[in-house]
Design goal:
The chain is α/β, with parallel strands linked by helices and 205 residues long. It is 42% helix and 19% strand. It has a single domain, classed as Rossmann fold (3-Layer(aba) Sandwich), CATH 3.40.50. It has a 7-stranded mixed beta sheet, sandwiched between helices. Strand 2, helix 2 and strand 3 form a beta-alpha-beta unit. The two termini are 12 Å apart.
């Protein structure tokens, strides 16, 4: 169907805009899907509170999945079957999926920065393959018959060069991933202070 990119800094409103657009475009027959890419682990009270607040904001209006670094596998499974939860977590008593793969399903992928952080931290030997797999899967949403993907991207273009090697690896991976996604996206928005500005010259026809 289509791929929409939302680029912004910390607390810029990029996720809120992506979720708003996904709700507006979504088929009323089912819930939109929130993909918590690079999902945080509740290792301390602050992280646990942040996770709880995000879940509360979404409420029961969203289906949520939480792949940490296996984003490529998650999106590929979603394209094949919109009931992605059953694809990632085996169900001993599977039920027929009431949602048709012919329907349009809105998906919010949040965020590229969190996902890349998880890949770089958890997978020292497979980073490049995992990152490219995720990029290819997101790009495939452009031509998927049943998916409208809204991808939240952390803007590193204005950052200073990181002082650590893993920090520089993150900046490089995030910048290169963003460029690949923007090159094929149907729409690209730069979000600041809750205002989403379309970058019309990058809009895919």
């Amino acid at each position: 169907m289509s791929l929409h990119i939302y680029i912004g800094g910390i607390s810029s409103g990029k996720t809120a805009r992506a979720m708003q657009d996904a709700r507006n475009l979504h088929n009323a027959q089912g819930k939109p899907i929130y993909v918590a890419a690079g999902a945080l682990e509740a290792k301390d009270d602050e992280t646990a509170k942040k996770i709880f607040e995000h879940q509360r904001e979404r409420g029961n209006d969203w289906e949520t999945i939480s792949p940490r670094w296996q984003l490529g596998d998650a999106i590929t499974a979603l394209i094949k079957n919109p009931n992605l939860q059953s694809n990632l977590q085996p169900n001993p008593n599977p039920q027929p999926n009431p949602r048709s793969v012919q329907e349009q399903h809105a998906v919010v992928i949040d965020s590229i920065g969190s996902w890349l952080s998880a890949v770089l931290i958890d997978n020292a030997n497979e980073q490049n393959a995992l990152i490219q797999s995720g990029i290819n899967a997101m790009i495939s949403c452009v031509d998927a018959p049943n998916i409208t993907a809204h991808v939240v991207v952390d803007d590193v273009s204005r950052s200073m060069v990181a002082m650590t090697s893993i920090g520089r690896a993150f900046e490089r991976a995030c910048g290169e991933t963003t460029q690949q996604l923007v090159a094929v996206a149907n729409e690209v928005f730069v979000v600041q202070f809750g205002i989403a500005v379309p970058i019309s010259q990058w809009r895919r026809k």
